[in-house]
Amino acid sequence: MRMSTWIRQHLAALRALLVLTAITGIVYPAAVFVAAQLPGLHDKADGSLITVDGGVVGSSLIGQSFTDKDGNALVQYFQSRPSAAGDGYDPLSTAASNLGPESIVDTIDADPAKAKSSLLSTVCARSKAVGDREGVDGGRPFCTEGGVGAVLSVIGPRDADGDVSHPVQVVSVNEACPTKPFLATYKGVQVDCAKPGEDYSVGRIVPIIGNASTDTPVPSDAVTASGSGLDPQISPQYAAIQIARIAKARNISQEQVRALVDGHTDGRTLGFLGEPRVNVVELNLDLDKQYPFRG
Which of 45, 127, 203, 257 pairs as cysteine with 155 (C-beta 3.0–4.6 A)? Predict the structure, then answer.
């Protein structure tokens, strides 16, 4: 008795399913596992783990926070790039902040749980903190001296181009009362601080560039998180402004610290991809090994 077409088709599909399951579910994973155990690949396949005295202390592929329990930077360590992954460098919560260049107005509220910083104010605050910590100028364009976004809401009748030539009220939207605004007047009108809970979106939002230099010594990777939130590297520029602090904390010369930084600096991948970078985790471990902190 001839097998029906329907049965033959389903048997062929079943055979294909079994063959592909064996290849993709058994043979291929086994081949990848065996190849991963080859010399030179084993450590990378296992997560590029870093061990000290037989214990795992991290991975060269994932950054760490070198701060105390209150989140303050430990003076004896190089600081990593900011992270938006969970509470910081959480592999299970890898993510960015999802804030873009148009995020320049903070949400000011009397309830801290409802208050939210814009990307601009976050960058300004981080830049000021880095500048204060490293003894360099942390000022940036469009930032106030207090470390928030220098943004005004200019309220009044608008012309055909949307400009407010004769404002009736001007508010520094990122400076909550009773803070003294970064500008005293704008177009002849007194600048007010922002009252918590008030909505100033009726006005024209005007960022003020200010007098800070565009050539700030605090690089962008010191004030912005990466897309993954897990980057273990920082730029050589960010490492360079931390050398003086590290040398003072560990009572060694800046030349000794700079030599370690140079030793942990990788160039562009294949000579032309990306930028030079410094692995902070490995650098700090080497610091502890060669020049223990005795503070």
Answer: 203
The 10s digit of each residue's pLDDT in 227-263 is 888 899 999 999 999 999 999 999 999 999 999 999 9
Query: What DSSP state is assigned to residue 40?
Result: T
- Asked if 127 and 140 count as a contact pair (C-beta separation under 8 A), the reply is yes
Q: What is the model's pTM?
A: 0.82
Q: Which of 239, 153, 151, 157 is nearest to 204 (CA)?
A: 153
Tokens of 45: 């396949």
DSSP 145: T
One-letter identity of residue 231: D
Quick one: tokens of 253?
Answer: 């010369």
pLDDT at 43: 54
Tokens for 251? 């009572």
Q: Which two tokens stand for residue 54?
A: 């037989």
Q: How far apart are CA 42 and CA 35, in angstroms?
A: 9
- Tens digits of residue pLDDT in 8-67: 888 888 999 999 998 999 988 888 877 766 666 555 555 577 777 777 777 888 889 999
Q: Are strands 189-194 and 169-176 parallel, antiparallel or unpaired?
A: parallel
What distance in Å separates the CA atoms of residue 107 and residue 199, rounded to the nearest whole number? 9
With H, G, I as helix, E, B as strand and everything else as coil, classify residue 227: coil
Averaged confidence pLDDT in the chain: 90
Tokens linked to 285: 């471990």
Residue 150 DSSP one-character state: -
**Residue 146 and residue 153 in contact, taking contact as beta carbons nearer than 8 Å:** no
Mean pLDDT for 97-117 is: 91
Q: What are phi and psi of 140, to 5 degrees?
A: -140, 155
- How many whole angstroms separate alpha carbon 152 and alpha carbon 174? 8
DSSP string spanning 78-143?
A: -------STTTT-GGG-------TT----B--SSTTT-B--HHHHHHHHHHHHHHHHTS----TTB
